[in-house]
Recover the amino acids of this structure.
């Protein structure tokens, strides 16, 4: 079992909230982690993947929850997305708990049912929601580096020796992705596993959160690979619908459902303050796991990936998702955006700290970096003024390099820092 650095946070939140909801992609390791934590802390584990349990939960939600509470143990409800009918019953049970009773329900689900149309009821003040994404490369390497804490520090701290990595190493990391079970699969077994993942699970989850009409299966089979090819690009629903000969409203609703299922991620535009008038407000599309994206695009070898038109966009998705993964166990909270103005100045990632300070990050697939690579960051710094804190270009070279642009100091950082 790979280390999951989010575990300490989950244990802490079980002491603070009545309900903890752990969500994230299917096969990201939620069940493995939930079983471990249930065993370590004496919680009663129940999986709604079991037909009898699911039938009981759907037939009599209140009775089902009452029967679990009769055990006088905190409860783990795995695969919670299969029974959104339980939301009201759990809310009622939570309302009836004494103020000191915390950590009573630990829910896990591979679809974010609390964002879907089927479960509009909220649990304000009762529930903490945490995402467990696929493995970060830091977890895969059993490293200790946290990207978010490094980027949000008040000063740029010196980095120790960095691993020597080639372009092929970075490309292989994208192909490998972060699904725990895939890390030990052979080259022949990987595509079989991923096909099974798509056919046997993805469509099953889609049915559970989206009231699809007609031949949605065929539409998804054309839409999902198309989205994989859009990694790192602005999301234009009408263009997608036109290219696929589909209705644009249906396309948008399907993409929303795929985001609830953690297949794609929409990165919003930074449109605040002085940047608002100049900014293009469209979100960017990112694939949550680059291994799945490469499979959807038929990219099997590093040479195929490096010579394709998709490498730069997939590398951007990779870094964006590493930010989200590291945020789960970082000491500081922040929000992620992208920036693009009407003059086509752009920054791949904007990190906004809770106090409003901004860090700009550009991602380059090249092993060389020059002053012009900081053009978008310099323009963003000019627009946001005193709120700007630091600017970085991540690249595939090996040295930390300072650059003076427009009276500010920016830094080029090797991507290999993620493996430390």
């Amino acid at each position: 079992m790979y280390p999951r650095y989010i575990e300490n946070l989950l244990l802490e939140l079980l002491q603070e909230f009545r309900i903890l909801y752990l969500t994230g992609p299917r096969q990201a390791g939620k069940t493995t982690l939930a079983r471990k934590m249930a065993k370590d802390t004496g919680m009663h584990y129940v999986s709604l993947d079991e037909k009898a349990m699911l039938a009981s939960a759907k037939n009599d939600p209140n009775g089902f929850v009452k029967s679990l509470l009769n055990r006088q143990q905190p409860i783990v409800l795995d695969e919670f997305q299969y029974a959104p009918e339980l939301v009201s019953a759990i809310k009622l049970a939570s309302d009836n708990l004494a103020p000191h009773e915390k950590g009573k329900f630990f829910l896990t689900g591979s679809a974010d049912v609390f964002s879907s149309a089927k479960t509009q009821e909220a649990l304000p003040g009762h529930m903490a929601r945490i995402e467990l994404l696929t493995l970060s490369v830091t977890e895969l390497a059993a490293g200790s580096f946290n990207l978010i804490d490094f980027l949000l520090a008040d000063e740029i701290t010196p980095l120790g020796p960095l691993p020597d990595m080639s372009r092929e190493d970075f490309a292989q990391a994208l192909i490998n992705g972060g699904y725990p079970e895939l890390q030990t699969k052979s080259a022949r077994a990987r595509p079989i596993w991923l096909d099974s993942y798509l056919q046997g699970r993805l469509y099953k989850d889609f049915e559970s959160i989206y009231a699809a009409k007609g031949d949605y299966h065929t539409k998804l089979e054309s839409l999902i690979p198309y989205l994989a090819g859009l990694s790192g690009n602005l999301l234009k629903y009408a263009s997608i619908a036109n290219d696929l000969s589909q209705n644009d409203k249906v396309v948008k609703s399907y993409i929303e459902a795929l985001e609830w299922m953690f297949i794609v991620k929409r990165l919003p535009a930074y449109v605040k303050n002085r940047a608002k008038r100049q900014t293009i407000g469209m979100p960017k599309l990112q694939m949550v796991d680059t291994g799945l994206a490469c499979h959807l695009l038929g990219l099997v070898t590093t040479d195929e990936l490096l010579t394709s038109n998709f490498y730069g966009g997939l590398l951007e998705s990779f870094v964006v998702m590493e930010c989200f993964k590291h945020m789960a166990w970082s000491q500081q909270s922040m929000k992620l955006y992208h920036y693009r103005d009407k003059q086509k100045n752009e920054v791949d990632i904007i990190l906004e700290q809770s106090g409003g300070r901004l860090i700009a990050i550009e991602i380059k697939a090249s092993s060389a970096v020059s002053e012009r690579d900081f053009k978008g960051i310099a323009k963003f710094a000019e627009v946001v003024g005193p709120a700007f804190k630091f600017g970085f270009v991540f690249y595939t070279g090996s040295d930390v390099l300072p650059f003076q642009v427009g009276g500010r100091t920016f830094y080029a950082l090797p991507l290999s820092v993620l493996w430390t």
